Amino acid sequence: MRHGKKVNHLGRKTAHREALLSNLASSLILNKRITTTVAKAKALRKYVEPLLTKAKADTTHSRRTVFSYLQNKESVQTLFGEVASKIAERQGGYTRIIKFGDVRQGDNAEMCLIELVDFNTLYTKEGAAKKTKTRRSRSKAGKKEEGAVEAAAPAAESEVKAEKKTKKAPAKKAKE
Asked: Which residues of the chain have pLDDT under 70?
């Protein structure tokens, strides 16, 4: 039974697990996405989301608290500068886990991608707006040019097929 078992120990002692999660969190903050196993990603999500929430309040106390977890000056600077400004209005759910569906060759561990949500432009509303802006216009001039080229190719193919079936002269087919 798993009564009260809230922490996945990841097969490591406490100090090793804390160092692993600290390094994974620093890599996630600096690179915005990392590839790891599903178990580590789920443990990392529980570890890093409170740190991201704490980074919203840029105070000396919160910086020192986050530094005690991460032990990396560059990741703390990135977190409180670039990352905190992007996640300021988000209430929670700062990370996304995307399972690959494949397994690691050596130990058959299920692999996934964990990323910071606001740094992937494919899923943001701004990314969707950019897609709609790149659509072709519906101007008549563009349709005439495209339509003439596209209509000429199927017309030629249909004439060849019609000649084979009915054995009519091409001149008669063109008049119709």
From this structure: 124-137, 140-176
Q: Do 97 and 112 contact (CB within 8 A), yes or no? A: yes
Spatial strand order of the sheet with 95-103 comes to 33-37, 110-116, 95-103
Query: Which two structure tokens, joined as six digits, stand for 111?
Result: 């692999």
At residue 2, the pLDDT reads 87
DSSP per-residue string spanning 35-72: EEEHHHHHHHHHHHHHHHHHTTS--HHHHHHHHHHH--
Place of tokens 């209509």: 151
Structural domain boundaries of the chain?
A: 14-124, 140-175
Global pTM value: 0.69
Q: Give the whole-angstrom CA distance, residue 40 versus residue 121.
A: 24
Q: What pLDDT, on a 0 to 100 scale, did the predictor assign at position 54?
A: 97
Q: Fold for domain 14-124? A: 50s Ribosomal Protein L17; Chain: A, (3.90.1030)
pLDDT at 153: 54
Q: Rounded to whole angstroms, what are the CA distances from 167 to 71, 126, 150, 162, 170? A: 84, 58, 25, 7, 9
